[in-house]
Structure formats: C-alpha cells, structure tokens
Amino acid sequence: MKNKTVAGILALVAGYMGLHRFYLGQVGLGIGYIMLLPIFLVTGLWFFLFIGLIDAIALFSMDQGAFNAKYNKHLEGNQGSFKNRNDRRQQKRNQRYEDRNSRRYEQVAPKRSTSPKKNPHLKEGKAKFKDYDYEGAIMDFNKALKIDPKNIAVHFNLACAHSLMEHKDKAFYHLDRAVALGFDDTEVIKTRDHLAFLRIQPEFLPFETNGFRLAKQLKTPQENLLDKQASPNQATQGDLLDQLQKLAKLKEKGLLTEEEFQVQKEKLLR
Fold it and tell me: What pTM value is reported for the model?
C-alpha cells in the first residue's frame, strides 16, 4: 500500500531523480526523470529541485481518498470486501442484540388468549412496556382485559408493570389471577426482574407458600370490601356512609373503574 507522505518526502528530497515516481509505481515517469538528468549540466540543479518541490506539494495536498484511488487501486477491491464483511458482521451483532433484548423484555405468552388481531391493546401494551412507558402499558393492558378478562398474559403483564410502579396490591392481585388462570412457571415469578419489588414485600413469603395465590387477608381492598358488604336492609346509616367513602377511595386509587363504582354504589343505595 502506497503512503502519500512517504511519496511526498521522496519527491522533496530526491525528486530530481524520480524516486517518488518509482515508489508510486510510475516506472515510465521515473525513467523519464533519469533520462532528463543530463539537462542538469545545462540548467543547473535548481530546475530539478523545482520539479521535485511541485510534485511534493501536489502529493502533500492531495486528498487521501484521491491518492488511494490513483495509486492504491489494487487495494480497493480488498478494502471494499473487508468493509462489506465488517458491515455484515455488525449487522449480525445488531440483530443478535435486538433478539436478546426482545427476549429479555418479552412477556410470557398466554396459554389461552384472544388473538392479537382481536385484542390489539395487548400488543400496544407490550410495546409501551418495552419503551418503559409503564403507565401507558397499564392503560392498554386494562383495555385488553376488558376484551379478554381471562387472558393469562395480560394479567401477568399487569403484575409486572404494577410491580415496577410499586403498586403492591394491584401487582399481587394480577399475579394471583394469572396463576389462578393457569400460569404455572413459578421460576419466572422467583427470578423475573420486573417482579423484584414484590419479592421484597413481607406478603410475598405467605403468597409463595400459598402456591403463589392470595390468601383471603391478602386480597385486594376491592374484594375485601365486597365480601364484607352487609345487605342494605341491615346496614345502618353510618355503615352506609362509611362504605360509600371506601368505594370512593377505591375509585380514586384506581382499584375501581367508574362503571364498577356506580354498580356498587347502586347496590348500597337500594
């Protein structure tokens, strides 16, 4: 591979002898320089020094790409091939990284669920989850749950998202529902990073001991309230007000939707 700096130095030091032309592979021009040496006897050394200086300036100022295109043509094919190989290797590395990244954040596939075409909110929720938009993912997963309330993947995804948001009660609730519906990969529950927040909670040990199911005392406030509701005829005025306030708090925390709140409110007021 020819080096333009070396060629420039040769032109500057011994340009009158054509050494830089021989170095660059221009043998014909190099011989021409030698054949013109007799003129040295007539014109003097300054003429050849002037020619060498012009060639040196031209070589030093030449763009490296132009120099390679002119004097390193035999390397272009190999360099292109080398570059293509590097590009292909980089593409493969990128693909492997994307595959690993996708598997890392991919949620457990449901054993029975509505297809993505019929339940687009599940796919949208997973995309937001991968982009760390956990609040948006929770909204989409809840929409997906309305379409398919028994979707294992939706419940599991909700458990992961709520755990990352440190919504303990909701995370335990949806993990309980996923297990109840058939999710049996307990190793994932014990190791998935997204559930790390739940595993450090004091409730996790009895939850695990109970087969990763909620005991009655660990059920969501919504379920405990509905289980303890007295019939309207038996409830006193104070009890009724207290239960309405509890329903309102559940709604504010997001544990009850507006529709569920209205249904339970109507039951209390009948």
Answer: 0.41
